[in-house]
Amino acid sequence: MLSEKTVQIIKSTVPVLEVHGTAITKRFYEMMFANHPELLNIFNHANQKQGRQQAALANAVYAAAQYIDKLETIIPVVKQIGHKHRSLGIRAEHYPIVGQNLLAAIKEVLGDAATEDILQAWAEAYGVIAGAFIGVEAKMYEQAEKQAGGWTDFRAFTVEKKIQESDVITSFYLVPQDGKEIAAFEPGQYVSVKMNMPGETYTHIRQYSLSDAPGKSYYRISVKREDAIRNNPAGKVSFYLHNQVKAGDVLWLSAPAGDFVLDRKDARPVVLMSGGVGLTPMVSMLNTLAETDPQRPVTFIHAAQNGDMHAMKEHVEELARKHPQISFHWCYDKPTERDREAHAFHREGYADLPWLQSIVPSKEASFYFCGPVPFMKSINGALQKWGVPAEDIHYEFFGPAGSLEPSEQELQEASGRR
Questions:
Q1: Do β-strands 298-304 and 326-332 pair in parallel, antiparallel, or remain unpaired?
Q2: Is 405 one of the annotated active-site residues of the chain?
Q3: Per the annotation, does 85 bind a ligand?
């Protein structure tokens, strides 16, 4: 239990964290990896280079400071991060390393402003916050290991087959190498895949949504090949999976994790919306609904660049033919002439609120969406404008959590000031 003095000191640092939070977390990761390079076997190097991990940690530290006297408020966030930590193999013994380097980064970035009282308060607060994470994650490790077909850490799976779904997305069907039972999962969850690639000093771990319904003898992941875009290099792991991994090869998987899951107790209509490879958890949800809840109305909306980039299109259309309660709607922002000739899509451009209102029977539904951040910001803003309650809006980021609130620049552009 933190003293009132400690709580007040932590809260007094909130404005400072708002300004310097990302600088602190950037320096934190630099120091931690210099002191403990073995942790590069766990963390996503691409997210580090793009600054996404630093921003996510800064947001988490900022939230912890804001609610230091009401930590129960951020327990949902703790659980969300805990799922990722468990799937990556982050353990209790890693937390003192994080704490030591975080405090050192705070001291270095803030300089004289980081008084002994502030550093001591943050040391105490970090102990409490770390204890919350360790407690939540311990239960997750236990549940993952003790469930039917469960395991701890990483387990060997053989690539049973590899199916190209579009120009950029390929599915991998994975069966346990030991031939034993595999753990059940909730539609929307993911697994971590640990890769040891030739020429790489460290292992690389990536998280991929499970893209089929649970209850099968295999897991399926559907991976987008991440090409180089502007300042972002090509994705090492996705390229290796696409170009090097073949049927018969072995991949190492964590047990399924994640809190972005379909509420199967909700009988109301459900709207599944995706952009690009964000369709993978949506297809898992769709397949599950078709198999287990055939009376529940489902509206499936997918946005892609064009038909060449549109994965699993035929599968969804076939499901809709078999299940009249399922409707589908395709939105292409750069359709090809072939798409136009085949009338392969329903809307050209982007999914906006008027279009959503024209195809979704009612806002009295449960909405799930996933995809690139600009797509999710647009969908989230449209649903809020429509008046959909927050508890009916469900989404997940691929990678470190971010914010769907519009930035100042986006607000200016939307209002015509730029």
A1: parallel
A2: no
A3: yes
At 164-180, the pLDDT tens digits run 999 999 999 999 999 99
**How far does Cα 72 stand from its chain's mean position?**
22
In whole angstroms, what is the distance from residue 143 CA to residue 120 CA?
35
Write down the pTM of the prediction: 0.90
Is position 240 annotated as part of the catalytic site?
A: no
How far apart CA 230 and CA 403 sit, in angstroms, is 22
- Return the SS3 of 303: strand
CATH code at 155-253: 2.40.30.10
What is the per-residue burial (b if ≥16 Cβ within 10 Å, else e) of 31-61?
bbbeeeeebbebbbbbebebebbbbbbbbbb
**Architecture of the domain delimited by 270-414:** 3-Layer(aba) Sandwich (3.40)
Q: Does the annotation flag 254 for ligand binding?
A: no
Contacts of 93 (CB under 8 A, 6+ apart): none
Whole-angstrom distance, CA of residue 155 vs CA of residue 176: 8
Pick the CATH number of 4-146 from 3.20.20.450, 1.10.490.10, 2.10.10.90, 3.40.50.720: 1.10.490.10
